[in-house]
């Protein structure tokens, strides 16, 4: 039986960490491996410490992009895992990290006071949030299919729409009720 190489990128729900799980099956003793993570906007981190058959968690210091733990940037990450000396025994995963954008989306969603808005504004706000969410999902789908340019464009559009939604105070000021029904 030959090595079956597989890695999983596990959500940490933490802006400062990235988790990579070794889901491989090894023929005999676990081999020496090389892990490479390309962080958007930074040089590639090569030769990261990696424990086989385990969950490995990395932060900005581990990835060599800062000297103190900071939030990891959103964007397209490329994670490559290879058994040393066996170029045919490798796997590469691409992910669109959207943790900061998701946190901003969650905050906007939670600030939307559904009891303050009238029915029409509530409905429009829900439609706007769902549109933003679909752009976020489309960015991830594009990244998962190696369409990096499309993924970046869709992510940027979602971020722009979300910033606009937030700056407009979600359309829920209570003024519509005051103006219409007072």
Question: Summarize this, please?
Answer:
The protein is α+β, with helices and mostly antiparallel strands and 182 residues long.
Write structural notes for this entry:
This protein has 182 residues and is an alpha+beta fold. It folds into two domains: 91 residues, Immunoglobulin-like (Sandwich), CATH 2.60.40; 83 residues, no CATH class. Helix content is 36%, strand content 20%. The chain contains four helices and six strands, in the order E-E-E-E-E-E-H-H-H-H. Strands 1-2-4 form a three-stranded antiparallel β-sheet, with no helix packed on it. Strands 3-5-6 form a three-stranded antiparallel β-sheet. The chain is elongated.
Domain module tally: 2
CATH architecture type of the largest domain: Sandwich
Number of separate strands? 6
Low-pLDDT runs: 174-182
N to C succession of SSEs: EEEEEEHHHH
- The helix-and-strand class reads alpha+beta
Specify the oligomeric state: single chain
What is the arithmetic mean of pLDDT?
A: 83
Strand order across the largest sheet: 1-2-4
Secondary structure layout plus pairing:
Layout: E1 7-10, E2 18-22, E3 33-38, E4 55-58, E5 75-83, E6 90-97, H1 99-111, H2 119-144, H3 148-167, H4 175-181
Antiparallel strand pairs: 1-2, 2-4, 3-5, 5-6
Helix pairs in contact: 1-2, 1-3, 2-3
Quick tags:
single chain, 182 residues, alpha+beta, Immunoglobulin-like, 2 domains, three-stranded antiparallel sheet, 4 helices, 6 strands, disordered C terminus
């Amino acid at each position: 039986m030959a090595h079956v190489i597989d890695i999983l990128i596990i959500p940490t729900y933490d802006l400062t960490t990235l988790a990579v799980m070794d889901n491989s099956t090894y023929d005999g003793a676990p081999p020496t491996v090389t892990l490479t993570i390309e962080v958007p906007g930074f040089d590639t981190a090569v030769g990261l410490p990696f424990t086989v058959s385990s969950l490995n968690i990395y932060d900005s210091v581990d990835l060599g992009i800062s000297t103190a733990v900071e939030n990891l940037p959103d964007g397209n990450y490329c994670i490559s895992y290879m058994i040393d000396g066996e170029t045919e025994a490798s796997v590469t995963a691409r992910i669109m990290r959207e943790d900061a954008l998701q946190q901003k989306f969650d905050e906007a969603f939670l600030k939307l006071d559904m009891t303050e808005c009238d029915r029409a504004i509530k409905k429009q706000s829900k439609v706007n949030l769902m549109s933003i969410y679909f752009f976020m999902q489309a960015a991830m789908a594009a990244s998962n299919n190696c369409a990096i340019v499309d993924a970046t464009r869709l992510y940027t559009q979602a971020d722009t729409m979300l910033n606009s939604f937030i700056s407009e105070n979600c359309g829920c000021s209570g003024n519509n009720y005051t103006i219409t029904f007072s």
